[in-house]
Design a protein that fits this description.
The chain has 151 residues and is mainly α. 83% of the residues lie in helices and 0% in strands. It has six helices and no strands. Helix 2 packs antiparallel against helix 3 and helix 4 runs antiparallel to helix 6.
């Protein structure tokens, strides 16, 4: 009921922006689920994952097109500084793990025996996540700090 009352006070532009933001979040979660399932299951979900990426990008561009100049600039700043800090953390983690990564089969040897058939997918997925998650988390933290400072 509260959400309906608040929703009716929003302009059509704000409602479209909220729709695209919701679309982006829902399909981003679907993408992460598909990516995880693709690593864990013996089936190939590459087309499902690709479709989820395309819809997520459409949603992201959709809500970004409804931002005013100040909010758009704040996102740029958050992506630059937060993403840079997150990527620096990823780089440091990769450098710290480098000696172990240079030994063939070292990462697979740390996994339980029942995960051996999907060990390559798991280690690739872990490396992928180590590259993207800290940058995204840095952006989110920077965005929250910018939002708190503005309000």
């Amino acid at each position: 009921m509260f959400q309906t009352a608040q929703h009716s006070r929003l302009s059509p532009r704000e409602r479209r922006k909220e729709f695209f933001m919701t679309l982006t979040v829902v399909f981003l979660l679907g993408y992460m689920t598909s990516l995880t399932a693709d690593m864990m299951l013996p089936i190939n979900l590459v087309w499902v994952t690709l479709a989820l990426v395309v819809v997520t990008l459409v949603g992201a561009f959709g809500w970004a097109s409804y931002l005013d100049e100040a909010k758009l600039n704040a996102h740029y700043v958050a992506w630059f500084w937060g993403g840079s800090v997150g990527l620096s953390a990823s780089m440091l983690a990769f450098v710290a793990l480098l000696p172990g990564m240079l030994i063939p089969g070292a990462a697979e040897a740390m996994l339980p025996a029942n995960l051996a058939p999907i060990a390559a997918n798991l280690t690739f997925g872990a490396g992928f996540m180590l590259g993207i998650v800290p940058a995204t988390m840095g952006y989110l933290v920077w965005w929250l700090l910018l939002s708190a400072r503005r309000d």
